[in-house]
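Please decode residue identities from the backbone states below.
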């Protein structure tokens, strides 16, 4: 004993004096400031940290490979340390994990009861879970305590999110108080098990968002994009002991996390190794219609109708009011139900499709019942207002029933079917009549009618079979040629509400673009070429063939096309934020684009062009790069669109020439506009013009300097020569910006718009210039030929639309 005591004292002194990596915390090891614990797989790190612009210190866990040090768990979030000179995290003599401050006072403890633990240790697992266990226990997963039972603002893979019904313990998320303040904030996320399980987001005690119920595959409204819903197993487990949500992405998917932000959003993040940063996918609440209970009972919130609340079919507004805007009084049935206490009813059900299922706090469910049995149970209960399939996986099974008003509904992509109860007289083909009143004569009439119609149906069936076989062969031939799905005109017309003005997104020289929703609920944008469009069948096929073979995060995705007689339509993925010019040239909306967002857009367009020019299966020259052809997704990430003028180049060629000059004045390079010579450097020139517009917030085609007439590149060039390029920056950029990054972007843009194609960099060099800080070459004089009157007339009237033009240029 006398030999061991000095050795132990020496060990403790060495631990205090030297910061190091330790594998676990035991009664002879502890964590002090400067020490870190790294999980065995190397994914997570635990140690002391202090947030940006804060003097407080905390114990936290973060990702090892993330240079931004994203913290996913904080021990003492509500008990910060002002000084960590002698603060340590250790296992006490009682076997409790405890954070002790400089004065030896406990600051935070794990609240474990470890009286039976003989050799307690604390260990950081590669899942990000900090656990306390008995080192002598043969079962390494027999945890005495784990941080996964006490999360902060992150839901990590493998974490059970929900309720332990035996102990009453709830695992839920609490947001940080501020971006740099880990203290408990006002926003919390829970798994609500009052009825059938659903995720809810609260501001204090007020519910502000609900996902709707679990349907066996996902929640009624997903918190991630559809294209990453295959992250791996996602389940809701319901038994007598516990109810919880759990997910675990596959190793191929990479790092993935959910977080409740300090400003009240649920966001999903995926780590992109190529970019070495986190990328955010869909956030919830996504729009005003995601606000819980915005429209009251028996209403559907439709974002396409000016944030309007619409009564369910056969329902009327309460108090005879008009249900619009954010009115929350709800709706009532137009005709009362005919239900009796003895269980008899002459009511029926109206089917609604692709809808977010209502709030389930007043619901009942049965996991084994069929949908037909579910209907009968609902009919026998006068309190039942609607029913739906409980679990849609494996063909569908189970019964989910709602009581009372139906709250928090909206149309959603890949939504479910639900059946809403109505009086029989409100449902076409269903008559309200007493039970057992059907007569023999009525049966005879029905049988005769059926037999008489049978012959007509058979003949019509044979005709339709032959017609559709012929049509199918024709569509398959066209589909093989274009390598894309071919949609019926009726399908697209139905999806766009017969191309109604309400669904119209914009108008260009080629025709109109409409928003739509396919029968499965998928949102689409339909580009409908007008009969007078200069983009003919060849351009149409060219756009289809080019973009169908392109796959890149910064290119808009083409879902299919439709060719029917004189109709030619392209079906794209829907971009909710429209095009970049919708923001950058609007005095109000441009303030939504701070400099980091603008730089992200510049960088994204550059990467998209690099893919077209170098990395795609076909080398593509776009020939019409401009801000109106850059679409923005929900997170304002850019996607290049409109490939009607694009040309593919064979082999190692970088360009070609044409007698048919097509493009947009103000973006065409001098050699292309004047001589029909185009190359990848033509796209580089157009990209440079677009960058100058993004930085300045001004159109090149509408640029007029008060002192002298000049183009935007010429104006930028003169400021560059005078050493005042910063004067080009848009005065409406919100917040501070990185001056060096802005000046470098202007310099790169001037390199791109130089007169000679040989002087312009290729897109590979542009991407490197944007992300690295090496010295840039001196810019030369830019090209000035844009095909417009020079000097322009001050008071000439012109359209605000930028229209792609096609001109003939003989050579």
């Amino acid at each position: 004993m006398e030999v061991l005591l000095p050795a132990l004292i020496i060990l403790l002194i060495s631990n205090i004096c030297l910061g190091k990596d330790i594998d676990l915390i035991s009664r002879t090891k502890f964590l002090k400031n400067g020490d870190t614990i790294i999980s065995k797989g190397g994914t997570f790190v635990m140690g002391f940290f202090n947030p940006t612009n804060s003097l407080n210190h905390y114990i936290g866990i973060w990702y090892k490979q993330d240079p931004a040090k994203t913290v996913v768990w904080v021990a003492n979030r509500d008990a910060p340390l002002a000084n960590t000179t002698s603060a340590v995290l250790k296992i006490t003599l009682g076997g409790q994990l405890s954070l002790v401050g400089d004065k030896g006072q406990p600051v935070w403890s794990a609240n474990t009861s470890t009286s039976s633990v003989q050799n307690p240790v604390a260990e950081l697992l590669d899942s990000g879970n900090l656990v306390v266990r008995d080192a002598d226990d043969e079962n390494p997963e027999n945890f005495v305590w784990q941080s996964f039972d006490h999360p902060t603002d992150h839901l990590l893979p493998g974490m059970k999110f929900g309720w332990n019904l035996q102990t009453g313990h709830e695992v839920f998320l609490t947001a940080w108080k501020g971006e740099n303040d880990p203290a408990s904030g006002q926003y919390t996320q829970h798994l609500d098990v009052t009825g059938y399980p659903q995720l809810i987001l609260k501001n204090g005690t007020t519910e502000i968002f609900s996902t709707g119920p679990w349907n066996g595959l996902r929640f009624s409204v997903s918190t991630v994009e559809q294209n990453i819903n295959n992250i791996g197993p996602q389940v809701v487990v319901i038994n007598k002991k516990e109810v919880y949500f759990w997910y675990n992405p596959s190793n191929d998917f990479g790092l993935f996390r959910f977080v409740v932000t300090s400003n009240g959003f649920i966001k999903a993040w995926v780590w992109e190794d190529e970019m070495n940063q986190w990328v955010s996918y869909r956030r919830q609440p996504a729009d005003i219609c995601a606000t819980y209970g915005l429209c009251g009972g028996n209403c559907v919130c439709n974002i396409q109708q000016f944030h309007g609340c619409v009564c369910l079919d056969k329902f009327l507004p309460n108090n005879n009011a008009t249900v619009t805007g954010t009115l929350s009084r709800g709706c009532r049935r137009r005709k009362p139900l005919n239900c009796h206490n003895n269980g008899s009813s002459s009511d029926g059900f109206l089917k609604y499709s692709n809808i977010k299922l209502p709030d389930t706090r007043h619901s009942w469910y049965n996991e084994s019942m069929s949908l037909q049995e579910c209907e009968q149970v609902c009919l026998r209960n006068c309190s039942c207002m609607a029913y739906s399939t409980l679990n849609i996986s494996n063909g569908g099974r189970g019964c989910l029933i709602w009581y009372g008003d139906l709250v928090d509904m909206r149309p959603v992509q890949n939504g479910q079917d639900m059946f809403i109860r109505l009086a029989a007289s409100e449902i076409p083909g269903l008559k309200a009549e007493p039970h057992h009143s059907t007569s023999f004569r009525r049966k005879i009439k029905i049988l005769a009618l059926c037999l008489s119609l049978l012959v007509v149906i058979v003949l019509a069936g044979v005709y339709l079979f032959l017609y559709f076989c012929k049509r199918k062969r024709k569509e398959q031939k066209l589909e093989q040629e274009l390598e894309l799905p071919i949609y019926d005109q009726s399908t697209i017309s139905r999806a766009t509400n017969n191309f109604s003005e309400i669904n119209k997104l914009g108008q260009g020289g080629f025709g109109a673009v409409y928003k739509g929703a396919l029968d499965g609920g998928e949102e689409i944008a339909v580009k409908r070429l007008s009969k007078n469009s200069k983009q003919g069948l060849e351009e149409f096929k060219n756009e289809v063939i080019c973009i169908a073979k392109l796959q890149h995060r910064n290119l808009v995705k083409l879902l299919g096309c439709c060719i029917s007689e004189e109709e030619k339509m392209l079906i794209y993925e829907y971009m909710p934020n429209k095009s970049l010019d919708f923001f950058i040239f609007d005095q109000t909306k441009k303030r939504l684009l701070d400099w980091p967002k603008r730089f992200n857009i510049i960088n994204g367009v550059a990467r998209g062009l690099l893919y077209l020019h170098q990395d795609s299966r076909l080398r593509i020259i776009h020939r019409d790069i401009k801000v109106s052809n850059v679409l923005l997704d929900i997170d304002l990430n850019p996607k290049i669109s409109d490939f009607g003028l694009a040309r593919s180049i064979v082999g190692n060629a970088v360009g070609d020439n044409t007698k048919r000059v097509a493009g947009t004045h103000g973006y065409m390079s001098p050699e292309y506009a004047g001589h029909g010579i185009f190359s990848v450097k033509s796209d580089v020139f157009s990209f440079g013009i677009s960058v100058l517009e993004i930085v300045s917030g001004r159109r090149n085609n509408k640029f007029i300097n008060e002192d002298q007439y000049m183009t935007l590149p010429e104006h930028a060039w003169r400021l560059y020569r005078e050493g005042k390029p910063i004067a080009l920056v848009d005065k409406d950029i919100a917040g501070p910006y990185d001056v060096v990054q802005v000046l470098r972007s202007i310099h790169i843009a001037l390199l791109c718009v130089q007169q000679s194609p040989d002087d312009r960099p290729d897109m590979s060099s542009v991407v490197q210039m944007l992300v690295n800080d090496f010295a840039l070459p001196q810019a030369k004089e830019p090209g000035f030929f844009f095909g417009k009157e020079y000097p322009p007339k001050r008071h000439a009237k012109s359209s605000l639309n930028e229209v792609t033009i096609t001109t003939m240029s003989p050579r």
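Observation: The two ends are 101 Å apart (CA to CA).
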